[in-house]
Amino acid sequence: LSGLDPAQPYFQGTPIEVRLDKSDADFVDVIHTDSAPTIPNLGFGISPAIGHIDFYPNGGEQMPGCGKNPVSQIVDLDGIWEGTRDFVACNHLRSYKYYSDSIIYPDGFLGYPCASYDLFQSGNCFPCPEEGCPNMGHYADKFKDKIKKDFLKLYLNTGEARDFPLWRYKVTVTLSGRSKVKGYVNVALYGSDGNTKQYQITKGTLKPDNTYTAYIDAEVNVGKVTKVKFLWNNNWINPTFPKLGAATITVEVGQNR
């Protein structure tokens, strides 16, 4: 039984006979997309974990792409009717859009077990544990026999618009060069199943021999990593023409470590 942002008003905090609960089926998975408090935030969705596994994409309260200005949202790609609905209840309705995308991407929407969204964002819950991560949506039940806890809270990030799934990588860059310089470092991943755009790993003071780490949520699952592209720039003309390279770049895949 899959709960798509089960309702909060009149249901949160009620007895389990009244609301969705893990006792309602052999396996209950829940997607929380609008779980901010109803007052003052108008959250339509329930916030406590109530299933066998509970997914909180983007933290479960504010979905990317839902903060678009009203005009662009109402004249949506899917037509005025869907755009108007999205303007009124965009976060709430993201749950079914993620679910429908999950049917097409059996390897997408990995939920990372974590105590909070902040910890997930800072990389504390990366990579997936040995038993793997469940997939939010249609294929969540593949994880049915691996659950060890009473409640399992899972976090992940999604895109702003279709296609919604993102794949998480940890990228670590050790710099080489002679002198420190201000600027930014970008890395793109290339693999057997596709390539990513450039992602910023760090910006500010770049010191040779220092190591910089970032967690990126890529729009494609690159498969087996075949090469990485390293770029740095200081955004201004420096008469000393500083040189900077990458001594090493390490890429860790969240899914299979």
TrEMBL record:
InterPro entries: AB_hydrolase_fold, Lipase, PLAT/LH2_dom, PLAT/LH2_dom_sf, TAG_lipase
Subcellular localization(s) per the UniProt record: Cell projection, Neuron projection; Secreted; Zymogen granule membrane
GO biological process: lipid catabolic process
GO molecular-function terms, A-Z: galactolipase activity; lipoprotein lipase activity
Spans through the membrane: none
Keywords: Cell projection, Cytoplasmic vesicle, Disulfide bond, Hydrolase, Lipid degradation, Lipid metabolism, Secreted
Catalytic activity: di-(9Z)-octadecenoylglycerol + H2O = (9Z-octadecenoyl)-glycerol + (9Z)-octadecenoate + H(+); a 1,2-diacyl-3-O-[alpha-D-galactosyl-(1->6)-beta-D-galactosyl]-sn-glycerol + H2O = acyl-3-O-[alpha-D-galactosyl-(1->6)-beta-D-galactosyl]-sn-glycerol + a fatty acid + H(+); 1,2,3-trioctanoylglycerol + H2O = dioctanoylglycerol + octanoate + H(+); long chain 1,2-diacyl-3-O-beta-D-galactosyl-sn-glycerol + H2O = long chain acyl-3-O-beta-D-galactosyl-sn-glycerol + a fatty acid + H(+)
Catalytic activity, EC: 3.1.1.26
Pathway(s): Glycerolipid metabolism; triacylglycerol degradation; Glycolipid metabolism
GO cellular component: extracellular space; neuron projection; zymogen granule membrane
Source domain of life: Eukaryota
Top EC class of this enzyme: hydrolase
Domain PLAT: 167-257
Topology of the protein relative to the lipid bilayer: Peripheral membrane protein
PANTHER family with a match to the protein in the record: LIPASE, PANCREATIC LIPASE-RELATED PROTEIN 2
Similarity section: Belongs to the AB hydrolase superfamily. Lipase family.
Designated name of the protein: Pancreatic lipase-related protein 2
Species of the source: Mohoua ochrocephala
High-level lineage: Eukaryota, Metazoa, Chordata, Craniata, Vertebrata
Gene: Pnliprp1
